[in-house]
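quick one: zinc ion bound model?
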Amino acid sequence: MLPFKLVYSDAYYLPIGQHVFPAQKYRLIYQRIISSGLAVQTDFLEPKPAADKDILLVHTSEYVYRLQYGMLSAAEELAMEIPYSEELVDAFWLAAGGSILAANKALEDRVAFNVGGGFHHAFPNHGEGFCMIHDVAVAIRRLQKDGKIKKAMTVDCDVHQGNGTAAIFGNRQTVERNLPSWGGLDPYVGKAAVAEADPTDVFTISLHQANNYPVVKPPSSIDINLPDHTTDEQYLSWLDNALSSGLRQFTPDLLCYVAGADPYKDDQLGGLDLTIEGLKQRDEMVFRAARAQGIPVMVTFAGGYANNVEDTITIHCNTIAAAKEIYGR
Ligand SMILES: [Zn+2]
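yep, here:
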């Protein structure tokens, strides 16, 4: 039995047909966890779909309405890169409910997993890159609303930048401000756009391949733009750097770890050179840093497109194994 919970449902399956996104991966992870003895049935919790009012803490009512009534434009569906269906909407609402449940369990048990989620490319008003609803942001906003946390940190180790996360929690905003008037006979009052720090409650860290989707990368609190073919050693040193810098500046009540499997060297959509062992060391580094400061961790799995889907499953299961080693002591 694990010292923490795994949130999972068979209905996490994304009905998207033949696709580079292995929609069956959640079920495969679940099966591997059980068959390998990593966890037992009682370690799992079944999620409920998020309520619309939770989704609306992050997404605009126009977007939610268009999703629920099948009114996305062709361009919007194209940007999402997965085919729209009502069942797909249900799967994303369920993933968001799973992240809310996992975040709550993380506060109780120091760590918890949503065996799904991590849809970090969803924006308040549109979906992108296989992501319709930003489950992690929904969970953060819901826990803040419930008064369970004040501040959160996202640590995004997917190979693709967390553009949705950065857009939702962007700690720089552009404001229109009156310039001071000139003295003298002809006073002039102008307006200027000023970018300034918002009193931020969510600190966002993203380590990603610079030369990859998304082309436009809205600023996170810390962005590490890694060159192609970054190795284990280089990656771990940057991660160490980013974690210590972030945790020096900011003390979150919850850390949301987006544990993408796609920095793997044999990934179809990634260009970094991490090994399966290096990725497990990455997981351990995040858990150790959080545990040392007593910060609860909620984990989501995000992307993973290895040529051999079994490698993706291994990388995700290793994240659970890493937590078991670090929190089991
Ligand atoms: Zn990715």
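Confidence is low (pLDDT under 50) at residues 178-197.
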